[in-house]
Amino acid sequence: MQRLTLLKVRFGLFTALLVSAPLSKFPSVATPLYNFTSFRIGLYQLLMLLFVLSCLPGLIRSLKTLYAQQKLALISVAALAAVCILSLFTAIDRPRSALLVASILLLLLSVLAAWWYVAKELPKDRYTFLFKAILSAGCVFGVVSILQFLFAGFGHETFGLLCKNCGSQVFGFPRINGFAAEPQFYANALLIYFFAGLGAFYYSHSKLALGSCLLSLIGIGLTFSRGAFLAVIVGVVLFYVLLRIQGRLRIRTLLLHFVVVIITAVAVSGLLVTAASYRYRGTPDIAYKTFRSLIEQASLGVVKLPRSSKTSGFQPAGLIQASANERLTAAQLSLRAWGYSPITRLIGVGSGNLGPFVDKHIDASTPDNLTVYIFYSLLLSELGLIGVAAFFGLFASALAGFLGRFWRNKDAAIYTALFALGVAFLVQYCFFGSYINVTYIWLFIGILLGLGRKTSKQRYNKGTK
Length: 465
Hints:
18 helices, mainly alpha
């Protein structure tokens, strides 16, 4: 009875983590400790902690087996953990560094817990339930996204969720962030439901899959996260290319998907322009001005339309150059910190220690909570070459092992979509620097490792004792 209860608890926690990825900020309790003004203890992080603790006994007993299955993945986890712990001995602000080190160690444990759970305990007969739960969550969060946009764009109620500078004062329309700290984090979480829906719709043409794919894509569009747009494009192209290589690409279905994407893009653009036109209806040519800004911002300035001759009233801000400069300046400071000495090149300046280090050794005007908007620059500067190599080793292990699994499977479209999701995560990491705001990515690394290395015997017969 006790074993049965534990199995149910683990499955319930695992399901909750899969369907609640966008809850990276709300609900949570703010704990501004050690100059981490944005550090929060959230529901999602607590669920992850409980899941890890519930898996820990079985995980410890299975470490040898997991190592035999995928040596590089376990070595990469160990290397990341070692570099993080080493940073505690060199940290300028040790309590601040310890806080982030503890967070990263939890992320690494979540990789191992998900890996063990999927490979050793999760039975295949629960896959259908989990996938339906994921697709249903995509529909729910898609509807929530639309409602948040309508309330913020055509009314004055944001329910305290809209982030700073996400209002209509910049682009003319609000950029929704759902329950996440910022639009790009919310869009990143919605990638899960989009790619799950894409794969399931290609495989079964179910209405639930189409709803998840369509509604989550609308949600991503309403965040106006350009990093997410690029991630979607790269992931979708990869999805179809892999299906073509496998000989499973159906032209009729491809055309249908293309029509769905075009209709969605037109609908999202219409919503954004309409919201700006309503909010600033007294401004001459506001619809055209918004559409022009929309095209230029989405294309990062590559596509430029003629300016309106009527310049009075609200003007959507041109943030392309300012945004790029801010990102590059932060990245340059982080790279200067990384190149400070042979030791920093090897193991970095320490987790959570970048701001204090730059303030002390590079630029005294830099704030202690320096924000780097490119995760790879943050990773290199804080964890050095060892950390970067270990991170890519972990991701490569998950994707490489997974690649062989879907190649021979009859439901290859679903596995191909999950592979494309992993690549999409890597793409969007170029547009924000964060560990704890994307906890679910580390969970999915473990899931990919578990699915990629699962054998038929392990799948059904070997559970936790």
